[in-house]
Amino acid sequence: MTQASDAARAYSRANGERFLDELKEMLRIPSLSGDPAHAGDIRRMAQWLETHLAGLGLDRVEIMETAGHPVVYGEWLGAGPSKPTLLVYGHYDVVPAELADGWQSDPFEPVVKDGKIYARGATDDKGQLFVHVKALESYLKTAGAAPVNLKLLLEGEEEVSSPNLKPFIVEHLELLRADVAVISDTSMRSIEEPAILHSLRGMTYIEIEVHGPRDDLHSGLWGGAVHNPAQALAEILARMFNADHSIAVPGFYDDVVPLTPEERAMIAKTDLTPEQYMASTGVPAVWGDAAFNIRERISARPTLDVNGLWSGWSGPGPKTIVPAKAGCKLSCRLVGNQDPHKIFELLKAYIESLTPPTVTVEVRLLTTGKPALFPFDSPAMQAAARAYVAGWGAQPLFTRGGGSIPVVADIADLMGIPVVLMGFGLDDDGLHSPNERYSIEMFQRGIETTIVYLEELAQM
Amino acid sequence: MTQASDAARAYSRANGERFLDELKEMLRIPSLSGDPAHAGDIRRMAQWLETHLAGLGLDRVEIMETAGHPVVYGEWLGAGPSKPTLLVYGHYDVVPAELADGWQSDPFEPVVKDGKIYARGATDDKGQLFVHVKALESYLKTAGAAPVNLKLLLEGEEEVSSPNLKPFIVEHLELLRADVAVISDTSMRSIEEPAILHSLRGMTYIEIEVHGPRDDLHSGLWGGAVHNPAQALAEILARMFNADHSIAVPGFYDDVVPLTPEERAMIAKTDLTPEQYMASTGVPAVWGDAAFNIRERISARPTLDVNGLWSGWSGPGPKTIVPAKAGCKLSCRLVGNQDPHKIFELLKAYIESLTPPTVTVEVRLLTTGKPALFPFDSPAMQAAARAYVAGWGAQPLFTRGGGSIPVVADIADLMGIPVVLMGFGLDDDGLHSPNERYSIEMFQRGIETTIVYLEELAQM
Fold first, then answer.
1. Are A93 and A41 in contact (CB under 8 A)?
2. Rounded to a whole number, what is the distance in Å from the CA of A201 to chain B's nearest CA?
3. Model-level pTM?
4. B379-406 burial, b for 16+ CB within 10 Å, e for fewer?
5. Among chain A residues, CA nearest to B284
């Protein structure tokens, strides 16, 4: 570590109280992106960030309009063209929160208790995006310069699926150009076990509808000679898995990048016991492809799940009909290098091949998301690993996230750069739930780790 | 045929216009059993029947109270103890009808058009129960006596599932004692093809619920190691049928009375072509157990149908969950001599045997109904057949009804007598629909056939 990063880290510690006060200011703004009534608060939040970033001495700070809520863009390019440029992505919008939902205090009036700050957005993502802002400040207010160039892309629509982010990136590719991107919007199991995500799952989400008779039929007058559509749907779904719980769709696994022995050894360190999995979910027994351990199944392997079912009568009591149709929602979580559209075609062809002539089937694509998989031996990833050792005080694990953050694949695809997911949250931060919280120690360690990371990146 | 029945038939023809006017009086009373606001109309209808029957010279006419709407009971026992006694069951209540539902005229102001009388209850069941009243009148006003003793049991709750009929029968077994019962509350395909039902299907109606995780799970964080309850339910349902579309529940067919070659030959006469079945239902192809023809499958064989399905998210768009549970309604139509409670136990045991340890299952009984099967070579049935030849002018077919009329099994079981289902309606009378109608020719032929039937019964 250099003197510059040591000074920056000391500054961040010395100013920890003020940083927290500033974070509280952010948390007091109810920047709900999904509620038109809060459009003014979203705008106020963007303006707060603009003012705040401008005060830190960035070269350029701008509220940039989109078809929806604006992007706050900031850049500091003082490291010069010989140094790498880091793109920081974060989001300043939040999901709704009401005291009545079970909050112990006003969700938009932050309270500090037992080393945690309680407020909507504390961990998701105001606290985590602020880590990067404060790391940059710590350099600019000490050495007067950061080791690398920085570009901040802070959006206000993440909680409503970022409908305008991809067009924004496409339109501003040149402005956003960078060597690596970093996102802090995820979490780790415990403070002692920092983790860098190097993969997220993608998605193909479909709707299947099986049609039989024109209308619901009286089961007494017609039952026995009609292929019940709910029955037919069940028969199709029952063939989605092989006996070993692998997915039966032909070609489904063709493009899956195999797990290396090295990665499997790393994943094994974070595996869950069946008892842990059962305790967390409440299931009576663990299920799935026995060729893979539980952690692999829920993060590194593709999945297929029925998300919803409907047909005929579901109210109280009996109704003696043969339903006219039956439907389901079905989605696959995908891993590198599965293509969501190719998977849709495979699913559709398989479902159609399973459909007997006694019913008709409709397979509709609802949504897709690309998986993201970054090699963890790349310079940007290894720089992050070193930063954790020095800044956090622990060797991080490279792990795979089972969920999907579409922006990750978008940045990787559109900009052609790796995305490093340095999640500074904790798994039990309660994001999207009542009493969302963020550990002040995580906040402080996140800032220091980021300070070191910028330095490590400079030597990349 | 005797002089007595000839005279009675002549009387019924001569008084046809008046009979129709009286039927219109009945149809003007909106005796909706399901709507408390019409309780007064139900009472008015019962009183109208009481007054009318008393005017015909019955020995006894009485409005008898139940826990719900009253029974109108009438008897004429003048044939004496050496002659058989016939119990006539009918119902004077109707389902709702509103002009706005698509009626071309006020549903409670009967209109005659093209030989049909249009009104709610015209065929179901005021017109058909009146057939028996007018047949009796035709004897009493000519010969002064009928060939057999008659008991009329007219209830006011059939359209709300007859909650008080079974207790009423149990309480009044001695009063109602008879040798045979007749019910006219069903229909035939065309006026040229009279039919006597000798069987109705029973029912076992269950609800299945499969439980997996405690709550809905995030499919990205947990998917891959949990047996999705909707998937598990589909896998269970997919095993309800064998490859030949017979029902796979062990023991399901054990108590089914085999169809005789004689009955199969009779059923073949009313079989539907696949094209007819497809046109009526709109299905793309016929389905079912190929060992039986279509008519057998929909009326003489037991069935199993999913009546409803539910799980997780069924609203618009995607929701990426593993649902906590999945459920379905499932019912079997049963035939003689299947026992609905035994079938429930078989279903439950089979479903539980199919349930893997990765989920839990709950199988709940919702409702049961016994099947009814009467040999068509019994004296009462053969008397009815002869009555159609003489009174209707065509040889009737003995057919099986695919639906369920619980009172039939109740009368048969509690009173130990056969029930003859002489349906004088037409399949396209539109019962329970707008513009319900009853053919005046069917009404007249029904009266004459019943007149002959009473005479045939006397010689039984």
1. no
2. 8
3. 0.88
4. ebbebbbbbbebbbeeebbbbbbbbbbb
5. A358
Distance from CA of A328 to the nearest CA of B (A): 7
Q: Nearest C-alpha of chain A: how many angstroms from B403?
A: 4
Q: Cβ contact (<8 Å) for A305 and B225?
A: no
pLDDT in tens, chain B (460 residues): 578 999 999 999 999 999 999 999 999 999 999 899 999 999 999 999 999 999 999 999 999 999 999 999 999 999 999 999 999 999 999 998 999 989 999 999 999 999 999 999 999 999 999 999 999 999 999 999 999 999 999 999 998 888 999 999 999 999 999 999 999 999 988 999 999 999 999 999 999 999 999 999 989 989 999 999 999 999 999 999 999 999 999 999 999 999 999 999 999 998 999 999 999 999 999 999 999 999 999 999 999 999 999 999 999 888 889 999 999 999 999 999 999 999 999 999 999 999 999 999 999 999 999 999 999 889 999 999 999 999 999 999 999 999 888 889 899 999 999 999 999 999 889 888 889 999 999 999 999 999 999 999 998 7
Handedness of CA A220, A222, A226, A227 (dihedral sign): negative
Contact B313 A308 (CB under 8 A): yes
Contacts of A205 in chain B (CB under 8 A): 318, 320
Number of helices (H), then strands (E), in chain A? 15, 20
The CA distance from A174 to A238, in Å, is: 49
B438-to-A246, B384, B399, B435, B451 alpha-carbon distances in Å: 60, 22, 21, 10, 20
List chain A residues with CB under 8 Å of B206: none
* Residue linked to tokens 């007018």: B134
Spatial separation of the C-alpha atoms in residues B98 and A455, rounded to whole Å: 80
Distance from CA of B402 to the nearest CA of A (A): 5
CA distance B246 to A84: 70
**Which residue type does B49 have?**
L
Contact present, A390 and A450 (Cβ < 8 Å):
no
Residues in A touching B239 (Cβ below 8 Å): 238
- Take residue B80 and report the two structure tokens written for it: 């004496």
The closest alpha carbon to B457, from B168, B85, B195, B13, belongs to B85
Cβ separation of B224 and A303 shorter than 8 Å?
Answer: yes
Q: Which residue has the tokens 């039989």?
A: A212
Q: Which of A297, A313, A357 sits opposite B308 (nearest CB)?
A: A313
| ipTM given for this complex | 0.88
Tell me the C-alpha distance between A312 and A296, whole Å: 38
CB–CB contacts below 8 A, A to B: 274
Question: A392 near A193, Cβ under 8 Å?
Answer: no
How far, CA to CA in Å, does A174 sit from each of A65, B38, B110?
17, 76, 80
Query: Nearest chain A Cα to B212, which residue?
Result: A283
Q: Write phi, then psi, for A365 (nearest 5 degrees).
A: -85, 125
Nearest to B91 by CA among B34, B33, B37: B33
As a three-state string, the secondary structure of A317-339 is CCCCEECCEEEEEEEEEECCCCC
Domains of chain A: 3-200+371-458 (3.40.630.10), 202-256+302-369 (3.30.70.360)
Cβ contacts (< 8 Å) between B285 and chain A: which residues? 227, 356-358
Q: Are A252 and A346 in contact (CB under 8 A)?
A: yes
What residues in B contact A221, CB-CB < 8 Å? 298, 402-403
Residue closest to A249 by CA, chosen among A302, A173, A175: A302
CA B202, distance to chain mean position in Å, is 10
User: Are B284 and A308 in contact (CB < 8 Å)?
Assistant: no
Residue of A nearest to B356 (CA): A285
